[in-house]
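Input:
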Amino acid sequence: MDTQFIIALATMGGLGFIFAGALAIADKKLRVEENHLIGEINEVLPGANCGGCGYAGCYDFAVNVVEGKAKSNGCPVGGSETAAAVAYIMGEEAGEVVRMLPRMLCRGGHTEAVNKLATYYGPLSCSAMDLLSGGDKLCFYGCLGGGDCVVACPFGALVMGENGLPVLIESLCTGCGNCEKACPRHVIEMHPADRKVFVFCKSLDDPKTSKAVCSVSCMGCSICARKSEGGVVMENNLAVINYDQLDPEKVPFDKCSTRAIGMINDN
Amino acid sequence: MELFIIFLSAAIVNNFVLSYFLGICPFIGVSNKLTSAFSMGLATTFVLVLTAVVTWLINHLILMPAGLDYLQYVAFILVIASLVQFVEMFIKKTSQPLYRALGIYLPLITTNCAILGLALFMVLRDYSMMESIFFGLGAGVGFTLALTIMAGIREELELADVPKPFQGVPITLITAGILAMAFMGFSGLI
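Output:
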């Protein structure tokens, strides 16, 4: 019985040893040089290969982080600790993920977009309004006021204001971006929290129509674009901010007759 | 002739995927694109043939003379795991895109029951060396065939208006069932 045991042990041990040796040689011959960061990130990931990040597994996620396609905080399982570790390896500010806040880029509430296209009867939902000939406002680009973003917010950080526009409670916002996805008009955009200058209008209407439908629209007069030296550019009757070149000092906020361009929280 | 019958039997009549239902995981997982399905089939075929050779050698030269038949499972798994590791290194070296496309399913060849099934069938049927090689080749060709057919169907299926509850894996499993029924038609061939 004892010899049987030793034979079995020796056989399996020997086989294992031979295969290990063969693989070691193969590893030397077939080694692919890859970015050492990938391995390091893979080490700190949970290793569950759950696919929660949207990639094929932890290794694939690590590759995409190194290539800049995935964010360092993209692993929902590891949470903030993993995000901090990954960010540290990538040389980003350790654990400091840039705080993103939703910005509501339409100020045309009940008092601004006064004239209505029609009276809307139906479910109070932006997506329903958007499907049904575009809600009751004359503007086809602005906030519908149905509150889809308020419903979509899992943290209660958005409430519908008296003016028919959602209001953000910054202290409750986690920057998840659900409201941005919920908005059928795309007037909610996620921006870094330190970004203060925005064009609070999405209207591509011509100047005359813009002025008729809403008192705070961007009419496309382009005065901000001319003065700001590349910080603001005009696209289809709408001023668009080019944040890479923006110098807030040069933007003529007081020249904008509708105050469509301005600083956040200054109204 | 004997060898050809073994090959044909493993490839078509007793197709590993469609009549033994071995290796369903990659069959469902990698069959959404024709090219990667075909590559997966080739990689698996390679592992199957090598496994057939190496396990035969180990079984007949080491395990059976030493009276260690009861270690077959462990030894076979060891062989398969090592071979898959080798194939993975090889593919990573030669084709990065393919390595990416196969993703998690490449290391999962290790746990592909078609391969352990092959090794155990070989022992059960007491195949000779040559027969084992043809058996492995047949199984590999059969696996590739099943995967490629499935991928072809699924590429067409993408365009079909599938009812929502059946979208994705459910309709794939139903298709696999119908495909398996079609393969039953070969049963009288040998």
